[in-house]
């Protein structure tokens, strides 16, 4: 029987609340899926800082390196606004991404039929939407050096972040984009700002070169990233796979989240390169949303992005496509039944709690599994 070892890092704010629902789904899968899941839980983010002065411990990093997959909640919050930059809650997440070399971040934005009226956009703009934002996750301005604040001789301060990409970083993310597109609707839109950024020029050239040499069967278009943001809200169904850098991908995926009705809906998978010997990839799965300090502790967070992230782990790290389909199908059933957490509920409509939503998804999974 297949057995998987998962590291759960709930984090801060609503992270632990939505991770509780993932724990319940894992218990269900343990009983009913034919696979077993061994889990370990550790601290990350502000909760790790409070416990030992850093946002992730070496011990937790070691567990992450060894796990079949890391399931990550969310980090951050106003409590840690003034802690030193290097140990901010977000630094724990960035270290995980960098040290595990999780360069490919898949952020699918799917509009469930039942939510076609939950978006702030008109129904016909988002009905049937199924796009994938592929964000480069270990390069660009997030990690380029120098990255510092220095005091100049005249007493002024100067802050520097460096947008930096090398050939292999661009080529490998381009290949992932074309591979993903081949399994979907065969179209890639690459977004950068080659009109003002050198890294945009190189990005554009290399994506075109990889396309010409290795994936001429896939449709490729280039778009300036600012125009891409506009097109995402004008007519998002024109896209299939969008490939873009670390910072543009961060911003464009929050925009895409709102096409689906709520930031509480968007899951993600962060994948490394396959090991040449075993073929296995390091992987981390997390919702796109953050720790939502404004609603933390109230038991009203939407757990769907977190549960759907576990679904992506089943698909990409456990080779359990059927179980992943079961999770996604159960989410669709529950939304079709009208259950809504507060972020999705229409004005005046009753909403359900985080654990009610978890209950409903588990019941729908049992029903589907017969
Ligand atoms: P956020 O995503 O936490 O919240 C933005 C808005 O969306 C809030 O109004 C929040 O209530 C709502 N929201 C988010 N997730 C929801 C859910 N599951 N259900 C219902 N409503 C939800 O973004 P923010 O407020 O800009 O950031 C808060 C903190 O989270 C910051 O410290 C930030 O750095 C951090 N953050 C962490 C991650 C992560 O851990 N991956 C991602 C984004 C932001
Ligand atoms: C995300 C978040 C992170 C990012 C933060 C918390 C470091 O916004 O995953 O989208 O900027 O990448
Ligand atoms: Mn973000």
From TrEMBL:
One of its GO terms (biological process) is L-leucine biosynthetic process. Pathway: Amino-acid biosynthesis; L-leucine biosynthesis; L-leucine from 3-methyl-2-oxobutanoate: step 3/4. It catalyses: (2R,3S)-3-isopropylmalate + NAD(+) = 4-methyl-2-oxopentanoate + CO2 + NADH. Its EC number is 1.1.1.85. It comes from the Bacteria. Residues 5-361 form the Isopropylmalate dehydrogenase-like domain. Homodimer. The record marks 142, 193 as: Important for catalysis. The gene is leuB. Belongs to the isocitrate and isopropylmalate dehydrogenases family. LeuB type 1 subfamily. This is 3-isopropylmalate dehydrogenase. Catalyzes the oxidation of 3-carboxy-2-hydroxy-4-methylpentanoate (3-isopropylmalate) to 3-carboxy-4-methyl-2-oxopentanoate. The product decarboxylates to 4-methyl-2 oxopentanoate. It is an enzyme of class 1 (oxidoreductase). InterPro entries: IsoCit/isopropylmalate_DH_CS (IPR019818), IsoPropMal-DH-like_dom (IPR024084), Isopropylmalate_DH (IPR004429).
């Amino acid at each position: 029987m297949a057995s998987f070892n998962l590291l759960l890092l709930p984090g801060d704010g609503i992270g632990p609340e939505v991770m509780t629902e993932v724990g319940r789904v894992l218990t269900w899968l343990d009983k009913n899926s034919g696979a077993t899941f061994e889990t370990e839980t550790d601290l990350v983010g502000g909760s790790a800082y409070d416990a030992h002065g850093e946002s992730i411990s070496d011990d937790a990093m070691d567990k992450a390196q060894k796990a079949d997959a890391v399931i990550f909640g969310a980090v951050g919050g106003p409590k840690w606004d003034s802690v030193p930059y290097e140990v901010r809650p977000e630094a724990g997440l960035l270290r995980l991404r960098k040290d595990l070399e999780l360069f490919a971040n898949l952020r699918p934005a799917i509009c469930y039929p039942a939510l076609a009226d939950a978006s702030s956009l008109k129904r016909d703009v988002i009905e049937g939407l199924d796009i994938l934002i592929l964000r480069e996750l270990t390069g660009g301005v997030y990690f380029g050096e120098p990255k510092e604040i220095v005091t100049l001789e005249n007493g002024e301060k100067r802050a520097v972040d460096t947008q930096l990409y090398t050939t292999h970083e661009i080529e490998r993310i381009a290949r992932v984009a074309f591979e993903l597109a081949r399994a979907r609707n065969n179209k890639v839109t690459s977004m950068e700002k080659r009109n003002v950024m050198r890294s945009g020029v190189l990005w554009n050239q290399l994506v075109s070169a990889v396309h010409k040499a290795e994936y001429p069967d896939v449709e490729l278009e280039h778009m300036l990233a600012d125009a891409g943001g506009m097109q995402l809200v004008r007519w998002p169904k024109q896209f299939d796979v969008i490939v873009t850098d670390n910072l543009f991908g961060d911003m464009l995926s929050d925009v895409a989240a709102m096409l689906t009705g709520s930031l509480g809906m968007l899951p993600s998978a962060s994948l490394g390169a396959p090991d040449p010997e075993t073929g296995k990839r390091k992987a981390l799965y997390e919702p796109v949303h953050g720790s939502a300090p404004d609603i933390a502790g109230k038991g009203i967070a939407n757990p769907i992005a977190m549960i759907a992230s576990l679904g992506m782990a089943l698909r990409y790290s456990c080779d359990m496509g059927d179980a992943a389909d079961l999770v996604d199908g159960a989410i669709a059933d529950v939304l079709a039944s009208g259950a809504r957490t507060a972020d999705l509920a229409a004005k005046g409509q009753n909403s359900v709690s985080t654990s009610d939503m978890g209950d409903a998804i588990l019941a729908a999974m049992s029903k589907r599994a017969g």
